[in-house]
Amino acid sequence: MAATVSREPGREERRPSPLVETHGLTKRYGSRITAVRELDLTVKRGEVYGFLGPNGAGKTTTLRMLLGLIRPTSGEARVLGEKPGSPAGLEKVGALVESPAFYPYLSGRDNLRVMARYSGAPRSRIGEVLDQVELSGRAKDKFKKYSLGMKQRLGVAAALLKDPELLILDEPTNGLDPKGMADMRGLIRRLGRGDRTVLLSSHLLGEVEQICDRIGVISKGSLVAEGSIAELRGRQGLLVRAEPVEEAARIAERLAGVEEVAVADGALRLRTNPDRAAEINAKLVSAGLRVSELRPAGQSLEEAFLELTGGETV
Amino acid sequence: MLASFRAELLKIRKRPATWVLALVWFVLLVLFGYVFTYSFAANPPDPPENQPAAVQQQQEALNEQLLNGLLPENLLENLFTNGTFNLGAAIVLILGAMAAGSEYGWGTLKTSLTQRPSRFGLLAGKALALAVFLVLFVALGLAAGALSSYGVALLEDAAVEWPPLEELAKAAGVGVLTLGVWGFLGFALAMLFRGTALAIGLGLAWALAVENTIALLPIDSDWWESFRRLTLGENTASLGSIFGDPNPAFGIPEPLVEPERAAITLGLYVAIFAALSLFLLLRRDVT
Questions:
Q1: Which of B16, B117, B286 sits opposite A118 (nearest CB)?
Q2: Are residues A94 and A33 in the same domain?
Q3: Do A81 and A204 share a domain, yes or no?
Q4: What separation in angstroms does the CA of A200 have from each of A174, A231, B43?
Q5: By the CB < 8 Å criterion, does A87 face chain B?
Q6: Are B149 and B76 in contact, with CB atoms under 8 Å apart?
Q7: N or C: which end of chain A has fewer CB within 10 A?
Q8: How many CB atoms lie within 10 A of CB B270?
Q9: How far apart are CA A282 and CA A261, in angstroms?
């Protein structure tokens, strides 16, 4: 049995182990198109992993390979230690890939009945997952009459039928209005609590930043970075607005722990640990300088993303 | 596989198009198998005044023959030997195409496959559920024929004598093979083209235009006859002849294939169509 790690305080801490692992995963279409190139991806048990990349970067192709829907051209993948797409591997995986696809002539509940029969989930789970996604009140309506938000929630409900250890969600907020997006993010946060692992693909930086513990950035089919949000942002520092700025720069250069000082737009940008803000403020004030602004300033995730993807927009 | 079979049964059962097709099948069979023929035979046009008596007698005998053919005792000849049951080819071809092809159109194949079933299990369940509904369509066809022939017997004040049970059981088998081959052709075409539209379009073109043209083309050669022996229409017609000779009033040509061989050929076709569908599902990516 694989080890797990819990993010909730007071719960048993166990050794993290990868729930999803790929090595050199590649998918080519013909000789000209390489959708995914030599992808090495690791999703640890219990985390909410954000798979971030511009449209067409290869996110959905990767997820489809992890679910066994498409076969890789080369490389290998393991999902819960099993071959992707094998019934044993899918037993504890729930997925919503791209847009939610269901039978339009069936009600939400009947669609889940069909899916429960495929998965072998007990019928009692249908009511539970409908409650979880807050769709019980409209469960008797035909799928074709659902709004996009309701369709997405039904997709999540179907993914939850097996009470999965791993939940794979591909752009679950696509096409939703702001309230729908907020609701969906709240739902994903709730689902990601505890031991459940969530692999969330998105091209929305804010979404990933709000929800995910760790991020993998994919660009043109290749994984260009993987780590926590703080790690991806990289250099952290402080922005200081003090008068006179030249004097402030001289003092800052002499301070221990300040690795770099730059002046831009009449303000200082210090490469240092943001926790030293109070100490730096005290030094500047005691030297008779007027400090009007002092705040942490690092590379935003957007800046980091643009740097990693070579300026590709999302 | 059983889980997939249960899921597929639920889907086909709850699909309105299934029951629309069933209704169309029932109405088609009653209209073309009985109502039109009975209306013509029971209400023949007045003969021209100068028509010779011999021709008139011939006409009356033909009408008598047509009416007799509609009675319960001739139920199986009318349904199978005269080709009435083959009207269902187009209907079940659509049913089969819908069972497989709609999944691609709606994108539900990926939703189903990510739930856990193996591709083999999913396809086997789907094929089995289709087979169950094909059996139901056969039963519906037999019931439509039985009801109609009973109605004709009442109208004509004729005795109601049904074919023996053994013959009825044989008819069920012939019906399953006749509709099964077309249903699974639609199923395989839908898997091949990953959708319903092209599968139904090409399937109907083959069933209604190509097969009939092949049967009617007056080519006198051994290779042509060998080719005709392989067509679905020829084999279903030949299998239907197991219940007697075709009614001469319908001008149906003599069957080319022995009924036993036709049964084996049709069974092989069903197996080939199912195997092709499985091969396509196993080999292809689901995008």
A1: B117
A2: yes
A3: yes
A4: 12, 19, 73
A5: yes
A6: no
A7: N
A8: 22
A9: 17
- Say yes or no: A217 contacts chain B, CB-CB below 8 A: no
Within 13 Å and on the Cβ side, how many CA atoms surround B21? 25
Task: Give the chain A residue whose CA is nearest to the CA of B1.
Answer: A118
Residues of A in contact with B286 (CB under 8 A): 64, 69-70
The answer on A240 and A158 residing in a single domain is no
Interchain proximity A114–B10, CB inside 8 Å = yes
Q: From B105, which residue of chain A is nearest by alpha-carbon distance? A: A101
Q: What is the pLDDT along chain A (314 residues), one digit of tens a residue?
A: 333 333 444 444 444 568 999 999 999 999 889 999 999 999 999 899 999 998 889 999 999 999 999 999 999 999 999 999 998 889 999 999 988 999 999 999 999 999 999 999 999 999 999 999 999 999 999 999 999 999 999 999 999 999 999 999 999 988 888 888 888 888 888 888 878 999 999 888 888 888 898 999 999 999 998 988 878 876 678 889 999 999 999 998 888 888 888 888 888 888 888 888 898 999 999 999 999 999 887 667 777 777 777 766 55
CB of A207 closer than 8 Å to CB of A187: no
Numbered residues of chain B with Cβ closer than 8 Å to any chain A Cβ = 3-4, 6-7, 10-11, 14-16, 106-108, 110-118, 121-122, 285-287
Residue contact A101–B118, C-beta within 8 A? no
pLDDT (tens digit per residue) in A65-116? 999 999 999 999 999 999 999 988 899 999 999 889 999 999 999 999 999 9
**Best of B114, B123, B285 to disrupt the A interface by mutation (most A CBs within 10 Å)?**
B114
Domain boundary among A181, A199, A232: A232
Q: Which residue of B has its CA nearest to A87?
A: B116
* B38 pLDDT above the threshold of 70: yes
Same domain, A161 and A266: no
The answer as to whether A314 is a domain residue is: no
For residue B218, with 0-12 CB atoms within 10 Å meaning exposed, 13-18 middle and 19 or more buried, which class applies? exposed
Contact in structure between A228 and A47 (CB atoms under 8 Å):
no
Structure tokens given for A69: 């829907």
Residues of A in contact with B122 (CB under 8 A): 118
Q: Does A112 share its domain with A256?
A: no
Total tally of structural domains belonging to chain B: 1
A120 shares its domain with A260: no
Whether A2 is in a domain gets the answer: no
Domain-located, residue A79: yes
Query: Is the CB of A103 inside 8 Å of chain B's CB atoms?
Result: yes
| Neighboring chain B residues of A155 at a CB cutoff of 8 Å | 111
- What is the domain-level CATH number for residue A271? 3.30.70.980
Looking at chain A, which residue has its C-alpha nearest residue B106? A101
Number of domains chain A contains? 2
HSE-CB at B8 with a 13 A cutoff on CA atoms is 27
Contact A102 B114 (CB under 8 A): no
Nearest to A118 among B106, B116, B287 (CB): B116
Chain B CA closest to residue A61: B287
* Same-domain status, A81 and A161: yes
Q: Does residue A251 share a domain with residue A221?
A: no
* Distance (Å, whole) CA A232 – CA A308: 9
Q: Which structural domain, as residue segments, surrounds residue A287?
A: 235-298
Let me know if residue A4 belongs to a domain: no
Residue B277 tokens, joined: 């569908």
